[in-house]
Amino acid sequence: MIIPIRCMSCGKPIGGLWQKFKERNGGANPGKLLDELGVKRYCCRALLMTHVDKLQDIAKFRA
Asked: Which domain holds residue 51?
């Protein structure tokens, strides 16, 4: 739902990189983009590449 603030495996702060990654990922090579953002570890790269942002969909059903 919401991108974690830190990587679950290594503990590196990656929450601030999600917005930059989402804005700049317009069909570009995600590997090069992650290199530019300074994300080197496989666990952090996988977390950013596989995250699906569902917050807007869930916010519709507020009680």
From this structure: 1-63
